[in-house]
Amino acid sequence: SSSTLSEVTVSTGYQDIPKERTAGSFGKINNAALDRVVNTNIISKLEGLTPGLYFSKANKKTELSVRGLSTLNAATEPLIVLDNFPYEGNLADINPNDVESVTLLKVASASSIWGARAGNGVIVITSKKAAFNQPPRVNINTNITIQQKPDLFYSPAFLNSNDFIDLEKFLFGKGFYNSALNSTTSRPIISPVVEILAKQRAGTLSSADADAMINGYRAFDIRNDMSNYLYRQSVKQQYALNFSGGSPFMNYNFSLGYDDIKANAVGDAQQR
Prior knowledge:
Blueprint: E1 9-11, E2 16-18, E3 26-29, H1 31-35, H2 42-46, E4 53-56, E5 63-66, E6 79-82, E7 85-86, E8 99-105, H3 111-114, E9 122-127, E10 137-147, H4 161-173, H5 178-181, H6 192-202, H7 207-218, H8 222-230, E11 234-246, E12 251-262, E13 269-271
Parallel strand pairs: 6-9
Antiparallel strand pairs: 1-2, 3-8, 4-5, 6-7, 8-9, 10-11, 11-12, 12-13
Helix pairs in contact: 6-7
């Protein structure tokens, strides 16, 4: 018996060609690979699925680059092609449930199709389409992602209250706060512990009372209150409903989506 291997078709945004006819490097992400990643936006689904696509999340903004930095001063974003047309909008606004496949063109050979704008690489997105002579079909996709609230005590870069007070007492003994306490033109912000130490040094507060007040501050840590009242588990819910079908002369595809995102910070939520 003979069998045929499944062919890999590469979409350049201009045409669909077999893998053996392509020149240069590319990455193909099909719908099955995208569905394995549960997320509410297409950017997060692409992360880690193909080599050569890098994510920079500086300043709370995700920026994409293909095969590293290609220029110093000009734009570094790759060209986004959605259903054979350049896409100028935000990539995060594309519903991931409407995406059939993503092709990443990584080398400059794509410039022969899209010109100089393809110098930073091209991300070709193909959306789902209905076929002719297809009976009516209804697809429902839903996912819920629950993430634990952040552990504010995990990072060793922050001192706890007890260690911070010991540091303040050490610096106070070395005269670190003298200029702030003796200033007559402005009143810098100093902690209550430093004020207690200053009163003790001035003789207006006894050592026993000062130690008792300072020990009271040692038991407090603002991270406990932040964890109890400002943070919670994040919950991301996504619901997508798709209708598709076709006759011998026409086809149709219609989608509805709903996102409900409750972030880790209390009061920070998003619905669309």
